[in-house]
Amino acid sequence: MPRIPVKRDPGARGRLQDIPVQGHKRVLLAAPRGYCAGVDRAVVAVEKALEHYGAPVYVRKQIVHNVHVVSELEQQGAIFVDEVDEVPTGAHVVFSAHGVSPAVVNAAADRGLLAIDATCPLVTKVHREAVRFARDDFEILLIGHEGHEEVEGTAGEAPDHVTLVNGPDDVDRIEVKDPDKVVWLSQTTLSVDETMETVRRLRERFPNLQDPPSDDICYATQNRQVAIKKVAEDADLVIVVGSANSSNSVRLVEVALEYGAKAAYRVDYASEIRQEWLDGVATVGVTSGASVPEVLVQEVLADLSGAGYAEVQEVKTAEEDLMFSLPKELRKDITGRQDARALGGRGR
Questions:
Q1: Which one from 129, 149, 150, 152 is the annotated catalytic residue?
Q2: Which end of the chain is more exposed for a tag (fewer CB within 10 A), N or C?
Protein backbone atom coordinates (compact mmCIF):
# COMPACT_ATOMS: atom_id res chain seq x y z
CA MET A 1 0.00 0.00 0.00
CA PRO A 2 1.62 3.33 -1.04
CA ARG A 3 2.33 5.94 1.60
CA ILE A 4 -0.54 8.43 1.85
CA PRO A 5 0.40 12.03 1.04
CA VAL A 6 -0.43 14.47 3.83
CA LYS A 7 -1.86 17.81 2.72
CA ARG A 8 -1.80 19.39 6.17
CA ASP A 9 -0.31 22.87 6.07
CA PRO A 10 -0.33 24.56 9.48
CA GLY A 11 1.59 27.43 7.91
CA ALA A 12 -1.49 28.34 5.92
CA ARG A 13 -3.23 29.60 9.07
CA GLY A 14 -4.49 33.15 8.67
CA ARG A 15 -5.11 32.86 4.94
CA LEU A 16 -8.90 33.11 5.42
CA GLN A 17 -10.08 36.70 5.49
CA ASP A 18 -12.60 38.25 7.85
CA ILE A 19 -15.04 39.65 5.32
CA PRO A 20 -18.25 41.29 6.64
CA VAL A 21 -21.53 39.48 6.01
CA GLN A 22 -25.13 40.16 6.84
CA GLY A 23 -25.89 38.80 10.29
CA HIS A 24 -23.73 37.66 13.20
CA LYS A 25 -20.84 35.34 12.45
CA ARG A 26 -20.83 32.13 14.49
CA VAL A 27 -19.98 28.44 14.44
CA LEU A 28 -22.41 25.70 15.40
CA LEU A 29 -20.26 22.79 16.57
CA ALA A 30 -21.98 19.41 16.42
CA ALA A 31 -21.71 16.99 19.31
CA PRO A 32 -21.15 14.09 19.28
CA ARG A 33 -18.46 14.20 16.60
CA GLY A 34 -15.11 12.60 15.90
CA TYR A 35 -13.64 9.41 17.33
CA CYS A 36 -16.02 6.62 18.24
CA ALA A 37 -15.17 3.80 20.63
CA GLY A 38 -14.34 1.37 17.83
CA VAL A 39 -11.93 3.76 16.14
CA ASP A 40 -10.28 4.67 19.43
CA ARG A 41 -9.79 0.98 20.19
CA ALA A 42 -8.29 0.26 16.77
CA VAL A 43 -5.84 3.17 16.79
CA VAL A 44 -4.68 2.41 20.33
CA ALA A 45 -4.28 -1.24 19.29
CA VAL A 46 -1.72 -0.29 16.65
CA GLU A 47 0.08 2.06 19.06
CA LYS A 48 0.26 -0.61 21.74
CA ALA A 49 1.37 -3.27 19.26
CA LEU A 50 4.27 -0.99 18.35
CA GLU A 51 5.08 -0.57 22.06
CA HIS A 52 4.91 -4.32 22.69
CA TYR A 53 6.65 -5.70 19.65
CA GLY A 54 8.59 -2.78 18.20
CA ALA A 55 8.51 -1.48 14.64
CA PRO A 56 7.52 -2.51 12.15
CA VAL A 57 4.00 -3.70 12.84
CA TYR A 58 1.97 -4.41 9.71
CA VAL A 59 -1.64 -3.35 9.26
CA ARG A 60 -3.93 -4.81 6.60
CA LYS A 61 -5.66 -1.87 4.89
CA GLN A 62 -6.03 1.48 6.64
CA ILE A 63 -6.65 0.85 10.33
CA VAL A 64 -9.40 3.50 10.08
CA HIS A 65 -10.37 5.64 7.11
CA ASN A 66 -8.48 8.82 7.92
CA VAL A 67 -5.34 10.01 6.16
CA HIS A 68 -4.02 11.90 9.19
CA VAL A 69 -4.33 8.92 11.54
CA VAL A 70 -2.68 6.61 9.02
CA SER A 71 0.17 9.06 8.43
CA GLU A 72 0.79 9.47 12.17
CA LEU A 73 0.93 5.71 12.68
CA GLU A 74 3.27 5.33 9.70
CA GLN A 75 5.65 7.77 11.37
CA GLN A 76 5.58 5.57 14.49
CA GLY A 77 6.55 2.49 12.49
CA ALA A 78 3.32 0.97 11.20
CA ILE A 79 3.40 -0.39 7.66
CA PHE A 80 0.08 -0.54 5.83
CA VAL A 81 -0.44 -3.24 3.24
CA ASP A 82 -3.29 -4.22 0.97
CA GLU A 83 -3.16 -7.97 1.64
CA VAL A 84 -1.51 -10.30 4.12
CA ASP A 85 0.70 -11.87 1.45
CA GLU A 86 2.73 -8.63 1.59
CA VAL A 87 3.60 -9.26 5.25
CA PRO A 88 6.83 -11.14 6.03
CA THR A 89 6.30 -14.61 7.45
CA GLY A 90 6.04 -14.60 11.23
CA ALA A 91 5.46 -10.83 11.55
CA HIS A 92 2.71 -9.12 13.52
CA VAL A 93 -0.30 -7.93 11.52
CA VAL A 94 -3.29 -5.93 12.73
CA PHE A 95 -6.67 -6.32 11.09
CA SER A 96 -8.40 -2.97 10.64
CA ALA A 97 -11.52 -1.72 12.43
CA HIS A 98 -13.60 -2.57 9.35
CA GLY A 99 -13.15 -6.31 9.80
CA VAL A 100 -11.93 -9.11 7.56
CA SER A 101 -13.40 -12.26 6.08
CA PRO A 102 -12.50 -15.77 7.29
CA ALA A 103 -10.45 -16.16 4.11
CA VAL A 104 -8.14 -13.35 5.24
CA VAL A 105 -7.84 -14.83 8.73
CA ASN A 106 -6.91 -18.18 7.22
CA ALA A 107 -4.42 -16.63 4.80
CA ALA A 108 -2.68 -14.89 7.70
CA ALA A 109 -2.53 -18.16 9.64
CA ASP A 110 -1.12 -19.99 6.62
CA ARG A 111 1.74 -17.48 6.50
CA GLY A 112 2.45 -17.89 10.21
CA LEU A 113 1.50 -14.27 10.93
CA LEU A 114 0.77 -13.16 14.48
CA ALA A 115 -2.62 -11.53 13.94
CA ILE A 116 -4.24 -8.93 16.19
CA ASP A 117 -7.90 -8.36 15.40
CA ALA A 118 -8.86 -4.70 15.83
CA THR A 119 -12.28 -5.17 14.20
CA CYS A 120 -14.87 -2.90 15.78
CA PRO A 121 -17.07 -5.04 18.06
CA LEU A 122 -20.16 -3.61 16.35
CA VAL A 123 -18.88 -4.92 13.02
CA THR A 124 -18.12 -8.26 14.64
CA LYS A 125 -21.77 -8.36 15.75
CA VAL A 126 -22.88 -8.08 12.12
CA HIS A 127 -20.44 -10.85 11.15
CA ARG A 128 -21.98 -13.13 13.75
CA GLU A 129 -25.46 -12.31 12.51
CA ALA A 130 -24.43 -13.25 8.96
CA VAL A 131 -23.04 -16.58 10.16
CA ARG A 132 -26.17 -17.37 12.16
CA PHE A 133 -28.63 -16.51 9.40
CA ALA A 134 -26.59 -18.44 6.83
CA ARG A 135 -26.58 -21.45 9.14
CA ASP A 136 -30.38 -21.23 9.21
CA ASP A 137 -30.37 -21.08 5.40
CA PHE A 138 -31.62 -17.51 5.07
CA GLU A 139 -30.76 -15.36 2.09
CA ILE A 140 -29.02 -12.27 3.42
CA LEU A 141 -29.58 -8.94 1.69
CA LEU A 142 -26.55 -6.91 2.76
CA ILE A 143 -27.15 -3.18 2.39
CA GLY A 144 -23.83 -1.47 1.79
CA HIS A 145 -21.34 -0.06 -0.68
CA GLU A 146 -19.65 -2.42 -3.09
CA GLY A 147 -15.91 -2.60 -2.49
CA HIS A 148 -16.03 -1.22 1.05
CA GLU A 149 -13.79 -3.26 3.34
CA GLU A 150 -16.53 -3.78 5.91
CA VAL A 151 -18.91 -5.14 3.27
CA GLU A 152 -16.25 -7.49 1.92
CA GLY A 153 -15.57 -8.81 5.41
CA THR A 154 -19.24 -9.38 6.25
CA ALA A 155 -20.04 -10.96 2.89
CA GLY A 156 -17.03 -13.23 3.32
CA GLU A 157 -18.63 -14.81 6.38
CA ALA A 158 -21.38 -16.34 4.22
CA PRO A 159 -20.56 -15.77 0.55
CA ASP A 160 -23.14 -18.26 -0.73
CA HIS A 161 -25.96 -16.59 1.18
CA VAL A 162 -25.21 -12.87 0.72
CA THR A 163 -26.53 -10.53 -1.97
CA LEU A 164 -25.27 -6.95 -1.90
CA VAL A 165 -27.81 -4.13 -2.11
CA ASN A 166 -26.07 -0.86 -2.90
CA GLY A 167 -29.04 1.35 -2.04
CA PRO A 168 -32.72 2.05 -2.74
CA ASP A 169 -32.23 2.17 -6.50
CA ASP A 170 -30.69 -1.30 -6.44
CA VAL A 171 -33.76 -2.99 -4.99
CA ASP A 172 -35.61 -3.75 -8.22
CA ARG A 173 -32.81 -5.98 -9.53
CA ILE A 174 -32.74 -8.21 -6.44
CA GLU A 175 -33.95 -11.79 -6.88
CA VAL A 176 -34.25 -14.35 -4.10
CA LYS A 177 -34.90 -18.09 -4.08
CA ASP A 178 -37.36 -18.11 -1.19
CA PRO A 179 -39.06 -14.80 -0.30
CA ASP A 180 -40.15 -16.33 3.01
CA LYS A 181 -36.54 -16.79 4.18
CA VAL A 182 -34.92 -13.41 3.61
CA VAL A 183 -33.25 -11.11 6.13
CA TRP A 184 -31.47 -7.78 5.75
CA LEU A 185 -28.20 -6.70 7.35
CA SER A 186 -26.26 -3.50 6.74
CA GLN A 187 -22.88 -1.86 6.71
CA THR A 188 -22.55 -0.01 10.02
CA THR A 189 -21.59 3.40 8.61
CA LEU A 190 -24.47 4.15 6.24
CA SER A 191 -26.99 6.95 6.23
CA VAL A 192 -29.78 5.90 8.57
CA ASP A 193 -32.43 7.51 6.37
CA GLU A 194 -31.20 5.94 3.14
CA THR A 195 -30.87 2.54 4.76
CA MET A 196 -34.43 2.66 6.08
CA GLU A 197 -35.65 3.68 2.62
CA THR A 198 -33.81 0.71 1.15
CA VAL A 199 -35.43 -1.57 3.73
CA ARG A 200 -38.85 -0.08 2.96
CA ARG A 201 -38.46 -0.84 -0.74
CA LEU A 202 -37.13 -4.32 -0.05
CA ARG A 203 -40.14 -5.05 2.14
CA GLU A 204 -42.47 -3.92 -0.63
CA ARG A 205 -40.95 -6.66 -2.81
CA PHE A 206 -40.48 -9.21 -0.02
CA PRO A 207 -43.20 -8.67 2.63
CA ASN A 208 -41.77 -11.40 4.88
CA LEU A 209 -38.32 -9.78 4.99
CA GLN A 210 -36.90 -10.19 8.49
CA ASP A 211 -35.05 -7.52 10.45
CA PRO A 212 -31.73 -8.17 12.18
CA PRO A 213 -32.04 -8.78 15.93
CA SER A 214 -30.70 -5.28 16.59
CA ASP A 215 -29.90 -2.18 14.57
CA ASP A 216 -26.76 -2.73 12.49
CA ILE A 217 -25.96 0.95 11.90
CA CYS A 218 -23.60 1.85 14.71
CA TYR A 219 -24.54 4.20 17.52
CA ALA A 220 -21.78 6.66 16.57
CA THR A 221 -22.88 6.92 12.95
CA GLN A 222 -26.46 7.54 14.05
CA ASN A 223 -25.49 10.07 16.72
CA ARG A 224 -23.32 12.10 14.34
CA GLN A 225 -26.08 12.16 11.75
CA VAL A 226 -28.67 13.30 14.31
CA ALA A 227 -26.35 16.09 15.49
CA ILE A 228 -25.61 17.39 12.00
CA LYS A 229 -29.34 17.35 11.15
CA LYS A 230 -29.88 19.74 14.05
CA VAL A 231 -26.96 21.96 13.03
CA ALA A 232 -27.91 21.99 9.33
CA GLU A 233 -31.27 23.62 10.04
CA ASP A 234 -29.50 26.88 10.88
CA ALA A 235 -26.30 26.62 8.85
CA ASP A 236 -25.38 28.57 5.74
CA LEU A 237 -22.37 26.28 5.35
CA VAL A 238 -21.40 22.93 6.91
CA ILE A 239 -17.80 21.74 7.04
CA VAL A 240 -17.29 18.04 7.71
CA VAL A 241 -13.80 16.98 8.73
CA GLY A 242 -13.08 13.52 7.38
CA SER A 243 -11.41 11.61 4.57
CA ALA A 244 -12.86 10.82 1.16
CA ASN A 245 -12.84 7.06 1.79
CA SER A 246 -14.66 7.45 5.11
CA SER A 247 -18.22 6.35 4.42
CA ASN A 248 -19.64 7.97 7.53
CA SER A 249 -17.90 11.30 6.79
CA VAL A 250 -19.25 11.39 3.24
CA ARG A 251 -22.73 10.58 4.57
CA LEU A 252 -22.51 13.56 6.95
CA VAL A 253 -22.12 15.91 3.97
CA GLU A 254 -25.14 14.35 2.30
CA VAL A 255 -27.24 14.50 5.47
CA ALA A 256 -26.32 18.15 6.05
CA LEU A 257 -27.51 19.12 2.58
CA GLU A 258 -30.67 17.05 2.90
CA TYR A 259 -31.58 18.72 6.19
CA GLY A 260 -31.21 22.35 5.25
CA ALA A 261 -27.59 23.41 4.94
CA LYS A 262 -27.17 25.75 1.98
CA ALA A 263 -23.76 24.23 1.23
CA ALA A 264 -21.63 21.45 2.71
CA TYR A 265 -18.06 20.33 2.08
CA ARG A 266 -15.71 17.66 3.37
CA VAL A 267 -12.08 18.44 4.21
CA ASP A 268 -9.18 16.46 5.62
CA TYR A 269 -7.48 19.56 6.97
CA ALA A 270 -8.32 23.17 7.76
CA SER A 271 -5.99 24.30 4.99
CA GLU A 272 -8.47 22.92 2.45
CA ILE A 273 -11.21 25.40 3.38
CA ARG A 274 -11.69 27.86 0.53
CA GLN A 275 -12.35 31.54 1.02
CA GLU A 276 -15.23 31.51 -1.46
CA TRP A 277 -17.10 28.98 0.69
CA LEU A 278 -17.47 31.72 3.29
CA ASP A 279 -18.90 34.35 0.96
CA GLY A 280 -22.11 35.66 2.53
CA VAL A 281 -21.99 33.00 5.26
CA ALA A 282 -23.02 34.01 8.77
CA THR A 283 -23.41 30.57 10.38
CA VAL A 284 -20.94 27.74 9.80
CA GLY A 285 -21.73 24.25 11.03
CA VAL A 286 -18.77 22.02 11.88
CA THR A 287 -18.61 18.31 12.57
CA SER A 288 -16.29 15.37 11.97
CA GLY A 289 -16.53 11.72 11.02
CA ALA A 290 -16.11 8.88 13.47
CA SER A 291 -12.46 8.28 12.51
CA VAL A 292 -11.29 11.89 12.95
CA PRO A 293 -9.13 13.03 15.89
CA GLU A 294 -10.34 16.17 17.64
CA VAL A 295 -7.11 18.05 16.90
CA LEU A 296 -8.18 18.39 13.26
CA VAL A 297 -11.52 19.93 14.27
CA GLN A 298 -9.75 22.39 16.55
CA GLU A 299 -7.55 23.48 13.65
CA VAL A 300 -10.68 24.15 11.58
CA LEU A 301 -12.15 26.22 14.43
CA ALA A 302 -8.89 28.18 14.73
CA ASP A 303 -8.91 29.03 11.02
CA LEU A 304 -12.58 30.01 11.13
CA SER A 305 -11.91 32.19 14.18
CA GLY A 306 -9.34 34.09 12.16
CA ALA A 307 -12.03 34.70 9.55
CA GLY A 308 -14.34 36.25 12.15
CA TYR A 309 -16.17 33.11 13.30
CA ALA A 310 -14.86 33.28 16.86
CA GLU A 311 -18.16 32.52 18.57
CA VAL A 312 -18.64 28.76 18.90
CA GLN A 313 -21.91 27.27 20.11
CA GLU A 314 -21.95 23.53 20.73
CA VAL A 315 -25.09 21.72 19.60
CA LYS A 316 -25.25 18.54 21.66
CA THR A 317 -27.82 15.87 20.86
CA ALA A 318 -26.41 12.87 22.77
CA GLU A 319 -23.82 11.78 25.31
CA GLU A 320 -21.43 8.96 24.46
CA ASP A 321 -19.65 6.89 27.10
CA LEU A 322 -19.27 3.52 25.38
CA MET A 323 -15.80 1.97 25.59
CA PHE A 324 -14.44 -1.27 24.13
CA SER A 325 -11.71 -3.48 25.57
CA LEU A 326 -8.54 -3.76 23.54
CA PRO A 327 -7.75 -7.00 21.69
CA LYS A 328 -6.75 -9.64 24.26
CA GLU A 329 -3.11 -9.68 23.13
CA LEU A 330 -2.72 -6.03 24.14
CA ARG A 331 -4.50 -5.79 27.49
CA LYS A 332 -1.28 -6.12 29.48
CA ASP A 333 1.82 -3.96 29.27
CA ILE A 334 5.25 -5.31 28.43
CA THR A 335 5.82 -6.21 32.13
CA GLY A 336 2.70 -8.38 32.15
CA ARG A 337 0.59 -6.03 34.25
CA GLN A 338 -2.90 -4.91 33.25
CA ASP A 339 -2.53 -1.86 31.01
CA ALA A 340 -4.39 1.26 32.11
CA ARG A 341 -5.72 1.63 28.55
CA ALA A 342 -6.94 -1.95 28.27
CA LEU A 343 -10.54 -0.95 28.85
CA GLY A 344 -11.46 1.92 26.61
CA GLY A 345 -8.27 3.00 24.90
CA ARG A 346 -7.08 6.56 25.36
CA GLY A 347 -10.33 7.99 26.73
CA ARG A 348 -11.81 11.34 25.74
A1: 150
A2: C
